[in-house]
Automatic annotation (TrEMBL):
Subunit: Homodimer.
Keyword entries, A-Z: Amino-acid biosynthesis, Aminotransferase, Histidine biosynthesis, Pyridoxal phosphate, Transferase
Stated name of the protein: Histidinol-phosphate aminotransferase
Originating organism: Koleobacter methoxysyntrophicus
Gene: hisC_1
Annotated catalysed reactions: L-histidinol phosphate + 2-oxoglutarate = 3-(imidazol-4-yl)-2-oxopropyl phosphate + L-glutamate
Length: 377
């Protein structure tokens, strides 16, 4: 083992394996439960649109042929949707892959990236992999502190990652804040704006990252088919930037990173406006219900612009997680984000939300009772 450690790149030893949300099948096996709800990875419980499913079935018929490495139809559709040129687009095997490709394109040892803390862990993973330094700037009252981030930008800062709305807090950087931040971004620094949850935002103050690209700013916008489009299992996301920046990232990409079934499913999902509207409405309704129920339970939460909610459970979130798990509800603990008293919960269908609240009530009561018993014995 020691010998092996000498042989791998030193950056590899610094990487912590990604801890994925618990898979439903795994849990069913472990606990012998048949009905499980997964509210841990901000997926869309409505699933893919029917039109997407049909398109994927058709694409399966030609699975013996390599996929289109240019992603022609999808790029064309996205370029039309956003009024961009196709060369301003790159498709990734999930936006996860794009984060890694961007790091591989721009980062080397001695470089720095800046990201908010807490935020999406892949930014740190990708920069560490490339031997770059990751500077984490704490959020302020759960909001990304753009002024503090700006203050940290130095000559080595190649990339700043901003997740808007931020995962796990669900808060947004407003248009005014973003305008000012981008206006003062120094020449050598590119802003990567991860807008994985943008379709769920309802605030009028939310900036559309693509506008900055139209203005010629050094910005890369990342979006995904995994969230509102309900296609997380296909692994497909896209990046938007200037033709020059996209050309550089394109050089690093594997030719066939997007399989043909994913291309077909994603393309069709763009056309299904009804599915998107239904998904947004579900989250809005769910959000109102959860806010009300949590307030009634005396719990606080961070108001969200995304399809997840950060809740203060006032006790070790690992305990809450384990107890919820026994009741067939999978959530995320806040300890991975440095928030041990918080849980992050995906807003689901009304049935799922109700089940979550009823399980949470039971769990908190049980944990309070056992704490009291311990204290009095
Ligand atoms: C902020 C953020 N960016 C990117 C991703 C990854 O999305 P994809 O499934 O497209 O890789 C996630 C997934 O949870 C996310 O929360």
């Amino acid at each position: 083992m020691e010998d092996l450690k000498q042989r791998v790149r030193k950056e590899i030893l610094q990487l912590k394996p990604y801890i994925p949300g618990k898979h439903m099948e795994e849990l069913k096996r472990e606990l012998g439960i048949s009905e499980i709800i997964k509210l841990a990875s901000n997926e869309n419980p409505l699933g893919p649109s029917k039109r997407s499913i049909e398109a994927m079935k058709r694409a399966a018929e030609t699975a013996h042929i390599y996929p289109d490495s240019y992603n022609y139809h999808l790029k064309k559709a996205l370029a039309e949707k956003y009024n961009l040129r196709e060369k301003q687009l790159i498709l990734g095997n999930g936006s996860d892959e794009l984060i890694k490709l961007i790091a591989e394109t721009f980062l080397a040892e001695g470089d720095e990236i800046i990201m908010p803390d807490p935020s999406f862990s892949e930014y740190e993973f990708a920069s560490t992999l490339m031997g770059a330094q990751c500077i984490k700037v704490p959020t302020k009252d759960f909001r990304v502190d753009v002024n503090a981030i700006r203050a940290k930008i130095g000559p080595r800062t190649k990339l700043v990652f901003l997740c808007n709305p931020n995962n796990p807090t669900g808060t947004i950087v407003t248009r005014k804040e973003m305008d000012e931040f981008i206006d003062r971004l120094p020449g050598g620094t590119i802003l990567v704006l991860d807008e994985a949850y943008c379709e769920y935002v309802t605030s009028d103050d939310y900036p559309d990252g693509i506008e900055y690209i139209r203005q010629g700013k050094d910005v890369i916008v990342l979006r995904t088919f995994s969230k509102v489009y309900g296609l997380a299992g296909l692994r497909i996301g896209y990046g938007i930037s200037s033709e020059e920046i996209i050309d550089m990232i394109q050089r690093v990409k594997e030719p066939f990173n997007i399989n043909s079934i994913a291309q077909a499913g994603a393309l069709e999902s763009l056309k299904d406006e009804i599915q998107i509207t239904r998904s947004r409405e579900m989250v809005e309704k769910g959000k109102k219900y959860l806010y009300h129920a949590l307030t009634h339970m005396g719990l606080t939460y961070v108001p969200t612009e995304a399809n997840f909610l950060l809740i203060n459970v006032n006790r070790d979130s690992q305990e809450v997680f384990q107890e919820l798990l026994k009741r067939g509800v999978i959530i995320r603990t806040g300890d991975i984000f440095g928030l041990p008293d918080y849980i992050r919960v995906t807003i689901g269908t009304m049935e799922q939300n109700e089940r979550f609240i009823s399980a949470l009530k039971e769990v908190l009561l049980k944990l309070t009772n056992s704490a009291q018993k311990r204290a009095s014995s």
